[in-house]
Design goal:
The complex is a heterodimer. Chain A is mostly helical. In chain A, about 80% of the residues lie in helices and about 0% in strands. By secondary structure, chain B is α/β, with parallel strands linked by helices. Chain B has two domains: about 180 residues, Response regulator (Rossmann fold, 3-Layer(aba) Sandwich); about 130 residues, Rossmann fold (3-Layer(aba) Sandwich), CATH 3.40.50.2300. Chain B is built from eleven helices and twelve strands. In chain B, the strands form two sheets. Chain B has a six-stranded parallel β-sheet. In chain B, strands 7-6-8-9-10-12 form a six-stranded mixed β-sheet, with helices on both faces. The longest helix of chain B has 18 residues. Chain B is elongated and about 60 Å long. Chain B starts with a helix and ends with a helix. Classes of the chains: A mainly alpha, B alpha/beta. Chains A and B meet through helix 2, helix 5, helix 10, helix 11 and helix 12 of A and helix 2, strand 7, helix 7, helix 8 and helix 9 of B.
Amino acid sequence: MRDMAKPAFVLPRAFISADLLQLFYRLLAALLICLVLALLSDSFLTLGNILNVLRQASLLFFIASGLTLVVLTAGLDLSVGANVALSACLAGTVIHQTGSAALGVVAGLATGGVIGLLNGLMVTALRIPSFIATYGMLWVLNGLTYWYMAGEVVHGFPPGFRQIGSGYLFGLPTPAYLLLIFLAIGTVFAQRTVWGQEIYAIGANPVAARLSGIPLSRRLLLVYSVSGLMAGLASIIFLARLNSAEADIGESLTLPAIAAVLIGGTSLFGGVGTVFGTFVGALILTLVLNGMNLLSVNASWQPLVTGVIVILAVWLDMKTRRRGQ
Amino acid sequence: MNMRKKFCAGLTVLAVATIGTAAHADNETVAVFTKNQTNPFFQAVRVGADAAAKTLSAKVLHYIPTKPDSIPEQLSQIEDVVVKKPDAIVFTPVDYKAMVPGVEKINAANIPVVNITDRSSAGKFIAFVGADDYSLGLETGRYLLKAMGGKGNVVIIEGVKGALTNVDRVRGFNHALKENPGVKLLASQPGNYQRLQALQVMENLIESHPQIDGVLAANDAMAMGAIEALEGANRTAQVIGINGTKEAVDAIKAGKLLASGDYNGFLQGCIGTMIAVRSLRKEPVVPEIMLKPTVVTKANYQPYETPVESRACPTWDEAARLAGK
């Protein structure tokens, strides 16, 4: 069995080395945006603003990094935003009712993880296409959250807990540390472990992956659970950063998270992409909003500007990729 | 059931016609349409409608789109309602223009309908009950600028671009600013009524503007997001929001938020339902009640601490007096 696994591994490895080359180009797009912003605004290249961008990108990155693994297997998780909303509301309520921030964190992570696991079970055991399974989950979660919160806002948390989201450590915001840690974990997991490689193999060619002895269902369960768990983590950061949560916080998170994954070069067809690319994708989206605020772009024009820059960034990336190959 | 109810109602009408005294046809069904399950404002509207129905011994059925503010969903709910034929409808259009075909369907089915909160751009209604967002923005804005002594730097955090409420609130803010030439508007940026986006916008604005004295946010969630950003950066500014949510009242009490404009969803729900039932009972109604906005501040927040569930609807005389003219 192990011998047969070899060919399935060779293919993704080839893609990854091309990816590494691409990443350099992809950072180019982000750096280009930075250069333009630095020229246009005095406040862009200040330490405070750079830390702002990192902190703002972190929430998006947590959600998008778990999602990256799902997309690598040619799946999709549309429930991440709704997951963040429910997990945050539950975690917030637990903190209020027990007075224990630790229990709240556990509740948030567990909720996120369980939702992910359920998504995984729908995809593997019930064989429902991931788009449909997670789209259904999105509505189930929305329904639960709306019912549970009944229009209320859960707010006001202990200062110790708030440190996770709004604190600083040696001058760097706490979420920025978490971002670097999970960027490292995600990269090592995807590129350097057997499980990570198997995830690429599943996305590149599920039939070959199955024939080469990769336990398809278990790996898929893993990626959906991780995606849910990362949404759970994002919910904790959200709570700690904003000191409150309500039922509708998730809706504006899903699409940007998917966009961050795709702008980062991960293919919807699976097998191609990196967690680092997703970080760059999250960075580009954050930079665009940051820049528009700093430059006081008229509110009416902001959606248009965002759209144009995203399209240009990906176009530039595809052009350089072709040249790279 | 429905047949019997209609039969009973018919009998009562007959009885009234014969006896010629005031009707008291109890147990009418009123369908109440609100925009979403997430905004505490509409939760207050529903609680108000329930409270009014209870005192009048009528029955309320709530119709709420599962996807917040969904036009197709509200349209299909109208199609359902037209078939089920409640005795009357209290209606908030999710979109004041796009829902006109829906209103026309209700009119064609000859179901009496009261328009509340957002004024529909066409259609026949017994009455309109609302508060205008323009004066809400204006009054709350004035309160802030007065507290600032008519000088200093402010920023506006706008809601969803293109939403009627936002257009009017921001227009109100700008009018208040025009009255105070000593106050400088540094930026007017979109937060889409979302807490997280408002937090990030504020973080960015803090970087580009060393001195911000006041923040005008188009809803409470964004005002709270802005406050978190200010606290995180160790900066102080006076902040106002809109909606008079419980969270905002808590923050006013704690001295974090300066004020919140309120257009009283509870009262709108109460009065809208009262008008619907009164018109069914052939009792006199008023064609329009514009509630005066209340600016909730440290001086008058106490009544707002009572949860809406335990508030009582005004009597008809009190309500009619609110019509002003």
